Amino acid sequence: MNELITGELAVNGNWVVANLDTQIPWPNNLTKVTFCKRTLFLLPPTSTAMPDGGPLPSNETYPCVAVMLSPGEQFDNGILIISHFLSSLAWVEQRGARVEYWSGGNLPRPMGGRPRHPTYTQQFYCPYLPDSLEQRTRWALAFYREGLSLNHVAYQCLSFFKIMNIFLPAGPDQKKWMNDHLADVSDQRAKERIALIEAQHQDVGEYLYSSGRCAIAHAGAEPTADPEDPADIRRLGEDLPLVQALAEVAIEQEFGIKSASTVYREHLYELEGFHEVIRAPRVARIKTLASIGPGDWPVLPRLSIRLAYHDAYEPLDKMNARLIKIDQGIACVECTAEDGLTQLRLNLNFALERMQVDIIGELASRDDGSALAVQAAVKVGQFKLDYFKNGILEVWNADTGRMLARCDAFLPHNVDMSGTIASFEAAIQATQKEASKRTRS
């Protein structure tokens, strides 16, 4: 705890903390996330080791999400912000996140006594996090998280059914909608359940609505889901993957919230922010493979070239950017450091919706004989090495702090990894020696 509550977390204020029991792999170090223009802190579980190295005591704390409220802001508003974040995160991760306790105070102190150990991750990376504020969409994501987080199969099913109830209050409409969207289900277990229901000559929508939704929500007459009947519980467990899959189809198609798998399949995130910078009409012309002259080139903001999980690389931060050519579906962007010593070319391939970067051939360090030049070259060399080791390239608007583009992790092919890494490291060490020599002289 003493190691955790430092820096920004040690600022006295009005904090709200959600203590979690979650299936989402939780970062084992403090992580900051921006959501709905607010800064949230993901706190890892903490504990205090015994002085003699013995077993850990029982005062282990929950994994948490914390937010500091603005002056005069109500505690309930902090609960809403964190709840919205957790529902969006549960949608992307397709795992539950239940708040065990809400706490708060002048510092973001988590509560002790967590019931179980969460799954940890050293690298929490979630660049896609839908942040819609429309009420019906928020309900849909909230019921989805609820369905994933409950430990009772009947009420899990009911939470997923509620999502359909938001946009179709009438039973006959819900049955029809389910039947109409069976073909959109991709989960294999759900497909197998559809086939089994149809093999029994049952209408799938009618079966799910009557034996599922109504049987869970009502009692005293048929149908009723008996919480003590093993057959009923087993049947609902077999229905659950299908009900969840239909809820996911509803969230995507009726509320317009893409799943993480859809985002990955479409792959539009590689150039998403540049679409806004270059503007839709111009992008449409670029996609026709037309050549666009300098008279119609937009002014680009300063760009910061980064790698996820790494601190900024100074020579690649706040680079001046300009378009140098638009042709054959590709906009070529030349990025130059303020001191002119580092240069990188980005090829924005709008025809393929890909950001193409050659860090060997198109990332250059100019040596003007100064110590600053080789110091910059050392950092550029480290960037190349980190990128080569599965680096995730990100391009940020240096003036607004918004990510404009990102690539998937770089995967080298047909490469001797150990030999190549050793070569990079040897080059960095040689450049460091030269930097030391020039600094002394």
What attributes does this structure have?
19% strand, 5-stranded antiparallel sheet, 441 residues, 12 helices, 3 domains, globular, alpha+beta
Overview of the structural elements:
The longest helix has 26 residues, at 230-255. Helix 4 packs across helix 6. The model has no long low-confidence stretch (mean pLDDT 93). The chain is α+β, with helices and mostly antiparallel strands and 441 residues long. Strands 3-4-5-1-6 form a five-stranded antiparallel beta sheet. Strands 9, 10, 11, 12 and 13 form a five-stranded antiparallel beta sheet that branches. A three-stranded antiparallel beta sheet has the order 8-14-15. It contains twelve helices and 15 strands. The protein has three domains: 7-126; 136-264, no CATH class; 300-440, no CATH class.
Shape: globular
Percent range for β-strand residues: 15-25%
Averaged pLDDT: 93
Radius of gyration: 27 Å
What's the end-to-end separation, in Å?
47 Å
- Helix share bin: 25-40%
What's the order of the H and E elements?
A: EEEEEHEEHHHHHHHHHEEEEEEHEEH
- Work out the helix count: 12
Main structural class: alpha+beta
Parts with pLDDT < 50 across at least 5 consecutive residues: none
Number of E-state strands: 15
Domain module tally:
3
Major beta sheet, strand line-up? 3-4-5-1-6
Largest sheet: 5 strands, antiparallel
In short:
The protein is of the alpha+beta class and 441 residues long.
Layout of SSEs?
Elements: E1 14-22, E2 26-27, E3 31-35, E4 38-43, E5 64-69, H1 75-93, E6 97-105, E7 120-121, H2 135-149, H3 153-167, H4 171-180, H5 188-199, H6 204-217, H7 230-255, H8 260-266, H9 272-278, H10 280-287, E8 303-307, E9 320-327, E10 330-336, E11 342-349, E12 354-356, E13 363-365, H11 371-388, E14 393-397, E15 402-406, H12 417-440
Parallel strand pairs: 2-7
Antiparallel strand pairs: 1-5, 1-6, 3-4, 4-5, 8-14, 9-10, 10-11, 11-12, 11-13, 14-15
